[in-house]
């Protein structure tokens, strides 16, 4: 594993365990083996957003709805001092 990757994963898990927001999937449990990490997370009806986008262009109304939910969730994280950064 890359140096620091374990600490980064632990940090992200710590944040996800604390966050409760309607636009963020809740993390229930984390389990690990020597080679894998398993996450038990809230079930979300409707599937993954990525799969919806991968099928092709979304209707404008649906795209606006998803975008607004995403922005509200990001604002929630930022208001609590949690920020995202690109992977290096």
Automatic annotation (TrEMBL):
Keywords, ordered alphabetically: ATP-binding, Kinase, Nucleotide-binding, Serine/threonine-protein kinase, Transferase
GO molecular function: ATP binding; protein serine/threonine kinase activity
PROSITE patterns (alphabetical): PROTEIN_KINASE_DOM
Organism domain of life: Eukaryota
Residue span, Protein kinase domain: 1-88
Presence of keyword Transferase: yes
Protein name: Protein kinase domain-containing protein
Species, as recorded: Capsicum annuum
């Amino acid at each position: 594993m890359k140096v620091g990757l374990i600490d980064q994963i632990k940090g992200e898990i710590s944040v996800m365990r604390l966050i409760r927001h309607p636009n963020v999937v809740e993390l229930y449990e984390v389990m690990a083996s020597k080679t894998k990490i398993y996450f038990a997370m809230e079930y979300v009806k409707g599937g993954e957003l990525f799969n919806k986008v991968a099928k092709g262009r979304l209707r404008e109304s649906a795209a606006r709805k998803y975008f607004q939910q995403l922005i509200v969730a990001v604002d929630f994280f930022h208001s609590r001092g949690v920020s995202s950064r690109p992977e290096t």
